[in-house]
Automatic annotation (TrEMBL):
This is Restriction endonuclease. CDD domains: HNHc. GO terms for molecular function: endonuclease activity; nucleic acid binding; zinc ion binding. InterPro entries: HNH (IPR002711), HNH_nuc (IPR003615). The keyword Nuclease applies. Keywords: Endonuclease, Hydrolase, Nuclease. Residues 48-83 form the HNH domain.
Length: 132
């Protein structure tokens, strides 16, 4: 039976390494190379770690199955599911809309300029392949 790590890895590749919510690039295994590629500090890069996002939260009965796992950056994942919060998490679609609005006002992470130092230019436009 595939583990949650397998699901995360599969989602990461399906999503072309982009966060489900903020569309920012993420890393799976090598923060140092990621930081170098995007010109970030290690601390900044930490926010871009790919994490297994439960579309239906575990607290709401969501399971560790492929259909319920997407890849989201550490920052977005932790803000959707803050510890100790009494109110339920927003749905993935509503949360993505929230994140995109915040990003438009530069009120979300990624306000540092993400320029692909290694590849040159700016990040490509994300392709959203996950149905919310
Ligand atoms: Zn994100």
């Amino acid at each position: 039976m595939p583990s949650i790590k397998n699901h995360l890895s599969a989602s990461f590749h399906t999503q072309e390494g982009r966060c489900l919510y903020c569309d920012q690039p993420m890393w799976l295994a090598d923060p140092t190379a990621f930081a170098a590629r995007w010109g970030l500090s290690r601390r900044q890069a930490a926010r871009h770690q790919a994490t297994a996002e439960h579309l239906r939260p575990k607290s709401d009965g969501g399971r560790d199955v492929a259909a319920n796992i997407a890849a989201a950056c550490s920052y977005c994942n932790h803000h959707r599911h803050p510890r100790g919060r009494a109110t339920p998490a927003l749905s993935p679609a509503k949360y993505r809309a929230h994140v995109q609005r915040r990003r438009a006002r530069k009120g979300w992470h990624g306000f540092w300029p993400l320029v692909d130092v290694a590849g040159g230019g700016t990040p490509p436009r994300p392709s959203s392949v996950v149905q919310l």
